[in-house]
Recover the amino acids of this structure.
């Protein structure tokens, strides 16, 4: 009989998923899945709805437990959801200080807001923020505790195309600053190419294919190599012409 566990522990890899099974009733959502995320690596998960992407992310976040296999993660983790999930009765600064303790909590939150380009917006109410600004606050809240693993569940899906591209640039800059491992769930092939060190395509609860991305920042936007990778990913997803 297999054992199931989620172990917060510092290790060589940013996260390790070994032979993980997750069922909901008779439905197997994760089917003996294996995945390793290296330190400072940004892995993007692609796949059709229902393939297990968000279920895997929830296991890594500690919001769910596997029915079999092992999940090893760093003790310090943070998650950013598709919705910003800001508390409407708290200003931006207080939304970032949630869960922080100590005399320097407010200054850490101010620094985190400045890092995402929101210096001077500390006293703004969530209803006064644009969609992109609200997601920046959510990013600041995730990063203020200096996590070793950041989990992003389609955080830019509701944003317009221009704001989304700006958020991509922000994520790239934040990675260089924080040196955290990241896992991003998305349905957007172009977003995956823009951000990933490695793109993992899931199908029926397992890893189907994996592509390392070694393109320069310029080539991620427009190049023959980018189009070759895009075509391969669309083929993996069953969307090739």
């Amino acid at each position: 009989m297999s054992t199931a566990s989620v172990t917060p522990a510092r290790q060589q890899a940013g996260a390790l998923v070994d032979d993980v099974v997750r069922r909901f009733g008779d439905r197997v959502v994760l089917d003996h899945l294996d995945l390793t995320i290296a330190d400072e690596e940004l892995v993007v998960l692609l796949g059709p709805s229902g393939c297990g992407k968000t279920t895997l992310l929830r296991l890594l976040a500690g919001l769910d437990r596997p029915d079999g296999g092992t999940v090893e993660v760093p003790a310090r983790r943070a998650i950013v959801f598709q919705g910003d999930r800001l508390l409407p009765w708290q200003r931006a600064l207080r939304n970032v200080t949630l869960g922080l303790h100590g005399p320097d909590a407010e200054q850490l939150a101010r620094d985190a807001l400045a890092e995402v380009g929101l210096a001077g917006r500390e006293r703004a109410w969530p209803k006064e923020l644009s969609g992109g600004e609200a997601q920046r606050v959510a990013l600041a809240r995730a990063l203020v505790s200096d996590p070793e693993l950041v989990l992003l569940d389609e955080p830019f899906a509701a944003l317009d195309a221009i704001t989304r591209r700006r958020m991509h640039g922000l994520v790239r800059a934040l990675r260089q600053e924080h040196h955290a491992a990241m896992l991003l769930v998305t349905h957007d092939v172009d977003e995956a190419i823009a951000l990933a060190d490695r793109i993992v395509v899931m199908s029926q609860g397992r890893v189907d294919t994996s592509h390392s991305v070694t393109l320069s920042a310029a080539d991620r936007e427009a190049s023959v190599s980018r189009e070759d990778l895009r075509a391969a990913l669309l083929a993996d997803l069953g969307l090739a012409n």
Q: What stands out?
A: The longest helix spans residues 161-178. The CA atoms of residues 93 and 122 lie 5 Å apart.
